[in-house]
Amino acid sequence: MGIRGLMSFVEDHSNEFFIDLKLRDTKIIIDGYALFHRLCFNSNLELRYGGDYDSFADVVQKFFESLFACNICPYVVLDGGCDISDKKLTTLKDRAREKIQMAHSLSVGGGGYVCPLLIREVFIQVLIKLHVCFVQCFSEADRDIMTLANHWNCPVLSSDSDFCIFDLKSGFCPLNSFQWRNMNTLKGTREHYIPAKCFSLDALCHHFSRMNKALLPLFAVLCGNDHINLPIMETFLSKVRLPLGGASSKGRRHHRVLGLLNWLSQFANPTEALDNVLQYLPKKNRENVKELLCCSMEEYQPSQVKLQDFFQYGAYACPDALNLALPEWVLVALAKGQLSPFISDALVLRRTILQTQVENMQQPSAHRISLPIRQTIYGLLLNASAHLENTSWNALPLQRLAFSEVERIHKNIKTSIVDAVEVPKDHSDLSTLTEIRKICGRMVLRCCTKSSKE
To answer: Which residue positions does the secretion signal occupy (predicted)?
Structure first.
């Protein structure tokens, strides 16, 4: 998630909206996805030749050693697979296209930012080595992070502008002002701290006529985020006169941010503001738009998931995951990062997105070489299909043994239909897959080699 133009806007007003911190002696909830991207792209690593993993692992280790030196106890929360509703698919496809363009630029000697394929796995390996507590959520982690941080009353470390909207008790520290490489010592002591800045939601609301915090989720969806992009909202924005309340920098995006915040500040609550928004739209669209906006605003409410249970007991209940009736070992392996989000996407959506890498864009994607392995994985996962009656699984217009893959074709993306290998049911029941004998495991592996020869 992320709100267009918001992070650069608040950073342009850092003296008003941020508080300087000397961070030490605290728990901190870390957005794992944001962190490993930040460390990968801001550590002068080589991104062109498949992954400078040793150097990346060293950087990750030094980061956490800085936290330990300041008696900061990190809890890393990683995103899982796509939401069951698949409402971010358009955004994910747009990002995939952008990554392909950057990967092409890198492949011909230009600039760009594309994570090597195994960067997430290396990150997790370092977490395990250093005994850093971490969990992989079943889907997107933002709400779960917010809920856990408020439960423990500790700050969040991320680069996602959605954390400027969440009502966090101890605030949100942006990664780009988290000076972990420049630890300082408290005067007259031997205690270390990390200089950081903490976003103040109260300061933002005070700046805009003491606006009600509850209006900010509506601001987020009107401004535009990863979950909603309604063309009809341009009708509202073109008709309403947004009061700028002063000069803004960086063009139209900041005009929209500033104008919407000033406009919303006149309303007492979200219901009043939403009713006013709908007045600018054609009557035939109002109910549908209202439902979509209210649904999107829910993304900023606390989660039902209690990640503290995982860190205390080694397991937690996720309603979305439980509704699928997946085997317990699958849920545990996903939470521990032993299975990648690729697996949950295939299980829940019967669709996967193959990650972009730096390669010759005129040649077929290197993912083609592992197609037989993926087909066998899909065959194994098909045995869970009986549990997925209430998901979009059965709504997909695909053949019974087919999955869809979003892959690179030259410098664009294409959704391809991939047939799963039919694995013998008596050797591949997903609920008992971890218990099969070696001889049965070899039979499953032979499915890979057989399909690769056909």
So the answer is: none
Q: Residue 154, class by beta-carbon neighbours within 10 Å (0-12 exposed, 13-18 middle, 19+ buried)?
A: buried
Between CA 214 and CA 72 the distance in angstroms is: 31
- Which has the closest alpha carbon to 407: 359, 371, 365? 365
362 within 8 A of 430, measured Cβ to Cβ:
no
Chain-centroid distance, C-alpha 262: 29
Gap between the Cα atoms of 60 and 57, Å rounded = 5
Location of structure tokens 């924005």: 237
Dig out the tokens for 383 from the structure: 């045995």
Instruction: Give the whole-angstrom CA distance, residue 184 versus residue 116.
Output: 33
Least confident of 254-258, 379-383, 421-425: 421-425
Angle formed at CA 378 by CA 377 and CA 381, multiple of 5 degrees? 90
CA dihedral 344, 346, 351, 355 (to 10 degrees): 70
Confidence of residue 91 (pLDDT cuts 50, 70, 90): confident
Rounded Cα gap, residues 194 and 363, in angstroms: 46
Residue found by looking up tokens 């030749």 in the block: 49
Tell me the C-alpha distance between 207 and 82, whole Å. 36
Note whether 165 and 145 are within 8 A (CB): no
d(CA 375, CA 356): 19
Give the start-end residues of each E strand in 49-144.
Answer: 72-78, 133-136
**One-letter amino acid of 18:** F
- Output DSSP code: residue 228: B
- Distance between CA 168 and CA 241 in Å, rounded? 31
Q: Which residue bears the tokens 């299980």?
A: 347
The answer to whether the beta carbons of residues 162 and 220 sit under 8 Å apart is yes
Q: Report, as an integer, the average pLDDT of 42-50.
A: 90
What is the arithmetic mean of pLDDT over 436-447? 62
How is the chain split among helix, strand and coil, in percent rounded to 5? 50, 15, 35
Are residues 408 and 350 in contact, defined by beta-carbon separation less than 8 angstroms?
Answer: no
What does the buried/exposed string (b/e) look like for 173-187 if buried means 16 or more CB atoms within 10 Å of the residue's CB?
A: bbbebbebeebeeee
Which residue in 367, 347, 345, 348 sits closest to 356, CA to CA? Answer: 367
Q: Looking at 324-364, list the stretches that DSSP marks H as alpha helix, in order from N- to C-terminal side.
A: 328-335, 341-349
The strand pair at 18-23 and 192-199 is best described as: antiparallel
